[in-house]
Specification:
- This protein has helices at about 5-10, 10-35, 40-45, 45-75, 85-95, 130-135, 140-155, 160-165, 175-195, 200-210, 220-225, 235-240, 250-255; strands at about 75, 105-110, 115-120, 125-130.
- The protein is α+β, with helices and mostly antiparallel strands and about 260 residues long.
- It has one domain (about 5-255).
- A hairpin with a 2-residue loop joins β3 (about 115-120) and β4 (about 125-130).
Length: about 260
């Protein structure tokens, strides 16, 4: 893992990840101990549960294979021959973050959905950009978004072992959502590191709320930042703890306080 990632990883992300992994490891150990020590009659009674667990794992693997087939058959693979300026963003960003290989990047018709996401399945890394986001955003803003999604790969957020180690700890209310929000703050900082421009980076986040190409250049970032002070403290907190992503106003304000390191 690149030292750059550790520089920009939030302290809370590391703490939440340690807690989730510790709880998850204990739960997996308890499950293993149960199956080792349980009597045969009880073990037979648990066979339906084991069947559904194996079926779920198989479904997860098959879905991963179908995802790649669908992407290659119905989306646009970004490459040297297809949208080379986007390809360059991915290649250069992956190199700066120390990724052994860049993820496969796709552009797809989102039918109005304004989003981007990273995914890892069966050892393959992906970076997905929606058509609406690329159409409405400037290249400088897209560079931040690409950097943010590359950050998920570089920071190990999609690591297979880590995912399943943390998985049982989802039984703890709100804990995994808190971890997820900190991952987003980490990737915002990584995206800013790659874009090298705080205004374009913050504008890219604001565009997630705006989504309108015609008004992109007219956005008032200071006014958007001030909206954070209008969020009711109690209802804002309650709304936040149910979300996997921090609200956009918080993300913008957090990014304004980031110091870049070379």
């Amino acid at each position: 893992m690149s030292e750059i990632v550790n520089v920009y990883r939030t302290n809370k992300e590391s703490i939440y990840n340690y807690i989730l992994c510790s709880i998850g490891a204990l739960i997996w150990a308890a499950i293993a101990y149960f199956f080792i020590t349980v009597d045969q009659k009880t073990l037979i009674a648990t066979l339906p549960i084991m069947f559904y667990l194996v079926a779920f794992i198989l479904f997860f693997g098959i879905a991963a294979l179908l995802f790649r087939a669908n992407a290659l058959g119905n989306m646009i693979l970004i490459s040297e021959d297809q949208f080379p300026h986007l390809h360059y963003m991915v290649i250069e960003g992956a190199k700066k973050l120390g990724l052994a290989s860049p993820p496969e990047a796709f552009l797809y018709n989102s039918h109005g959905l304004f989003n981007a996401f990273a995914r890892q399945t069966v050892g393959r890394k992906y970076l997905m950009l929606t058509s609406s986001l690329v159409e409405a955003s400037t290249d400088e803003q897209v560079k931040f978004v690409v950097g943010h999604e590359l950050g998920h790969h570089a920071a190990g957020h999609l690591n297979f072992i880590g995912f399943w180690l943390r998985f049982p700890a989802r039984v703890i209310p709100f804990l995994h959502k808190a971890y997820s929000r900190q991952c987003e703050f980490t990737c915002d900082k990584i995206g800013y590191y790659l874009s090298r421009d705080v205004n374009h980076s913050c504008a890219a986040i604001q565009m997630l709320g705006c989504g309108c190409q015609r008004l992109n250049s007219k956005m008032n970032l200071a006014a958007f930042e001030n909206q954070e002070h209008l969020v009711p403290s109690i209802s804002g907190f309650i709304s936040e703890i149910f979300r996997s992503h921090p609200r956009l106003t918080r993300r913008v304000l957090a990014l304004k306080h980031v110091r870049l390191f070379d």
